[in-house]
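Researcher: I'd like a structural prediction for the single chain below. Treat it as a standalone chain; there are no partners to consider.
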Amino acid sequence: MADNNKQTGTGTGTAVRDKILIEEPRQYKVIFHNDDFTTMEFVTHVLQQVFSKPADVAVALMMKVHREGQAVVGVYSYDVAMTKTSLATAMARQEGFPLNITCEPD
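Model: Treating it as a single chain, here is the predicted structure.
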């Protein structure tokens, strides 16, 4: 004789949910370093063109690099920081300037 009292799919089981932790991507500082050859005008130009800084901010950052030896010009995700650094460095080399730009974790 078949057992007609079997219960299947009653929904009485316990649901288990895994927590997914999502972290913000690590940020990187882009740092301009002073040298004796790259002109102030060129640094200001790069800050405006590559880093989208308004003229007054670009001049203030350029002066900070000049007076203090270096300045953080922006904080970005890794890909953006590396792209901007590569583009600015290529522009400097094309113009014959040894502008040194580094990236480091924030």
